[in-house]
Amino acid sequence: MISFERVSKRYDNGHDALREVSFDVNRDELVFLTGHSGAGKSTLLRLIMLMEQPTRGRVVVNGNDLSRIGRRGVPAHRRGIGVVFQNHRLLFDRPVFDNVALPLTIAGYDDREVGRRVRAALDKVGLLDHERAMPVTLSGGEQQRVGIARAVVGRPPVLLADEPTGNLDPALSAEIMQLFADFARVGLTVLIASHDLSLISRLRHRIVTLREGRLVGTH
Ligand SMILES: Nc1ncnc2c1ncn2[C@@H]1O[C@H](COP(=O)(O)OP(=O)(O)OP(=O)(O)O)[C@@H](O)[C@H]1O
């Protein structure tokens, strides 16, 4: 789970990106994070990934108070968080299989385990028959699914996404959000930053709204 307790973030230039933000995302839950450009969504996600430290307040992820994780604990913390980006960030000179395998290869898993887990992840996103395809030959929606498979292949308990449907049309966007909902249903904690109010307000999940760094609503 993810818990923010009166979290404030002031950047070195004096800008207050987050002000006294408190909310929780439970296991089995998908929560949407929304707000205008510059409202603080990316800052909030960066705090969860320990790419930034809060100025005040406490962030707890999977039972760990992040202020107690030293530098040497950061890689293990990040392995517990799958991240999906808007622009996929795929390696375009490598086939789908290699892209999804990347986090496992870096973590030193043996080939058999890599094969097993990559195929399980590709199966979950409906791309099992595309493992040898090169990313350029895939549609935007399929490329985003590869990004999602790569995010979940290490079986992280937490899944974060930053504008994961930004480049997709409404039907594909809805399919991608359904995939995230499926991961929440099997026990992940899922937090998705999205501008796409017309889409997310149709889906029956909690929406946390930021305005100028303050939480202005959760419903
Ligand atoms: N490293 C930084 N140093 C100073 N200010 C920053 C830094 N990163 C972000 N900011 C500022 O903090 C505010 C919040 O930025 P953030 O990227 O979290 O917003 P956002 O809601 O994700 O916006 P967008 O939807 O445009 O990505 C913005 O005003 C931004 O300019």
UniProtKB/TrEMBL annotation:
Keywords: ATP-binding, Cell cycle, Cell division, Cell membrane, Membrane, Nucleotide-binding
Keyword Cell membrane: yes
Any GO CC annotation of this UniProt entry: plasma membrane
A GO MF term: ATP hydrolysis activity
Subcellular location: Cell inner membrane; Cell membrane
Superkingdom classification of source: Bacteria
Domain ABC transporter: residue ranges: 2-219
Record's function text: Part of the ABC transporter FtsEX involved in cellular division. Important for assembly or stability of the septal ring.
Assembly, per entry: Homodimer. Forms a membrane-associated complex with FtsX.
Family assignment from sequence similarity: Belongs to the ABC transporter superfamily.
PANTHER family: CELL DIVISION ATP-BINDING PROTEIN FTSE, IMPORT ATP-BINDING PROTEIN
NCBIfam families (alphabetical): FtsE
Identification of the protein by name: Cell division ATP-binding protein FtsE
Naturally occurring in which organism (per UniProt): Chromatocurvus halotolerans
